[in-house]
Each structure stands twice: as structure tokens, then as C-alpha cells.
Description:
The protein is mainly alpha-helical. The chain contains seven helices and five strands, in the order ααβαααββββαα.
Amino acid sequence: xxxxxxxxxxxxxxxxxxxxxxxxxxxxxxxxxxxxxxxxxxxxxxxxxxxxxxxxxxxxxxxxxxxxxxxxxxxxxxxxxxxxxxxxxxxxxxxxxxxxxxxxxxxxxxxxxxxxxxxxxxxxxxxxxxxxxxxxxxxxxxxxxxxxxxxxxxxxxxxxxxxxxxxx
Length: 168
């Protein structure tokens, strides 16, 4: 229907396209509010003090998937979701840490060595652990965020001892 309206180019078709676009934007905003509320509530319920998020800068360039999946992911407002999570977390006193996601799904969360990732499966060559690559990545992101949070201190006196202890 959108394609047909775009081809037409009349005033009424442009008006209908704007109405459809506004409706889609409201749907995405509502969904992002619901997701961010659920994420922050889960953190509060489980006693977390820090929410770790991937730094999603240039996510559209990094997605390697089928055309259909890319189409669905490119239409999502990732930055808006992150903003909602940040402001809702701050409202309840939680800290939000952004982590560079590079190699998080390829590095073993147990022994910190590079492993083999085939689609959604991660296998460590060193310790032999096997798990879903997203779970492995989330464990690594959690570890990185925890160590980054532990390393915070005065600018001239960061708490390096706590950061090193959490890494070892």
C-alpha cells in the first residue's frame, strides 16, 4: 500500500503516507517505552545497580543478515530505546554503562580466550565450553561493565585495584 501511495504523488496520498508514518512512529515509541520500562524494572527486581548496554553506534552498518531481517532492524529506533532506558534508570537511581560490543560474542566468558562462533553457537577452543553466542556476549558485556563501574573514581585517582580484581 505504501509503494502505491508513494507512486501516486497526490496531496491525498501524501496525507495518507504521513498519517501512516505517524502511526508507525507512535507504535515504535510505545514499544520502546514498554521495553525500557520492563528492562529497568527487571534490573530493580533483581537488585542490579548497573545496566550495561552495547554501544549501538553504526549498528545499521554492522548488521549482517538477510534482506528481510535488515529491513526490520533498520526501521527500529535504537537510539530512542537507549535514551528511554537511560532516563528511566536514572529516575530510579541505576547507573547505565555503554560497552563496546567488539569480540564479546567471540571471546570466552570463562577463560577470556578467542573461540569459534558459528551462527548462534559459541565454542571455546581452550576450555571447551559451548553456549549460545548471545548468552556468551551478554556475560562478557556484564563483566566489562562491572569492571568499568568498579574502576570509576576521581578523575586523577581511578580505583584501578578494584578494576583489576574484578578482571582476574
